[in-house]
Amino acid sequence: MQENIIIADKRPSTQIYASWQRQLSQAIRDPATLCKRLNLDDSWLPGAATGHQLFEICVPDAYLTRIAPNDPNDPLLRQVLPVSDEASTPQGYVTDPLEEAEHQPVKGLIHKYAGRVLLIASPACAINCRYCFRRHFPYSDNSPSRAQWQEALDYLRADTTLHEAILSGGDPLAANDRQLAWLVEQLENIPHLKRLRIHTRLPVVIPDRVDDALLGWLAATRLQKVMVLHINHANEIDQAVIDACTRLKQAGVTLLNQSVLLRGINDSVSTLATLSERLFEAGVLPYYLHVVDPVQGAAHFDVPDEEAKTLVKQLLEHLPGFLMPRLVREVPGKTSKTPL
């Protein structure tokens, strides 16, 4: 996990941590505690322990409070509770479903599409989503220090066709603001870069992450700012999330959302329609609706393409066009997302 230094106390040997960092450090990291906090029956523990061994659990309190207790089918719980199905290894489900290892010219950088590159700005996440396509990603090999970032920055400087830098991870906002401000400053000094895009779940999982330090460097950069949030269900959007989105928009950030279509969580027309409406109330536009990437451990979330296309066709009858997310799949080797 990235260092958690934000503000130094006047006493030289003491450090004060930002609220979001304290919350992250205190996140639930074992399935027994999660089950106990939500009053789940002990019958869930063996499966949760199995899944946890494959991909460790992480659930902060700010997210936990939105999960209904005594309900193993709660749509937020199902995104974070490990289950025994994660040990299944059906054909076609692999550890690198998007073949990102084939598109890493330098450490910490992925270049798949024309005009933009993705930077692994942090290996940490505020929450471990069970369907994560990077649950097996070799973060230890892709977490550059400032000195090592120079190779990636040189790569961006040398390619004048690049206009957009995407901060990803892990979750880029799990890095401290001092590190992020430095990285963004380096990026904005590259003349041909126009946009900064940040893919993050942190303003949703821990809304307090949208603090003055974050807003300061976001507001200051010359780059156009786009933040792509990751919200799969309307229940994830409480007043604290709406307030965080408002602060981001006031700092000049364009807010988009991408969701993953997940079996038993949001695979119904009514759920998807409610999500789009709730997103717009929060000042966020729906962007993509991804089918599940075939990552090992996530097959039980899959919704077949034909069923997904039927859902979206029916969704068109309930929403205006500007609230319709685009149904897509990411296919290795393609030059863009593939619409379905």
Automatic annotation (TrEMBL):
Reaction catalyzed: L-lysine = D-beta-lysine
Necessary cofactors: [4Fe-4S] cluster; pyridoxal 5'-phosphate
Keyword Isomerase part of the UniProt annotation: yes
PTM sites of type N6-(pyridoxal phosphate)lysine: K337
Domain Radical SAM core: 111-326
Residues the entry annotates as binding [4Fe-4S] cluster: C125, C129, C132
Keyword annotations: 4Fe-4S, Iron, Iron-sulfur, Isomerase, Metal-binding, Pyridoxal phosphate, S-adenosyl-L-methionine
Family matches, as Pfam families: Radical_SAM (PF04055)
GO molecular function: 4 iron, 4 sulfur cluster binding; isomerase activity; metal ion binding
The family this protein is said to belong to: Belongs to the radical SAM superfamily. KamA family.
Name under which the protein is recorded: L-lysine 2,3-aminomutase
